[in-house]
Design goal:
5-stranded antiparallel β-sheet; about 35% strand; 1 helix; globular; two-stranded antiparallel sheet; alpha+beta
Amino acid sequence: MEQPQELPEVITKGTKTYIQLRNTDKVYLYQVTDNDPNNKHIYYEVFYRRIDKAKIFSSGSILPNRVLYPYNEAFGNWAWCISRGNDHLMALRVATNKFNFIDKQTRIKQSA
């Protein structure tokens, strides 16, 4: 299988900036900063690395294999949003623990 197109290290969408803090072959951790001047907020998103297979459209254009960023319905299923109000360090600790748990868990399953 052809290597998938990886997620970018920085994504900007509207007032939000997503910065990739860590990744493995199984899981990602992004810091999300909402730069809305009326509601500045930092939180974290942890999610499994899921690959969408290449698609060929009737027009002949090709969408290559790529890693998916979670869509809204993915949260609570294979992605988690972690926030602790203004306590960003606590949110980062919780997100890092979730990241490590997922990474370790999938590695144990692979070696079993």
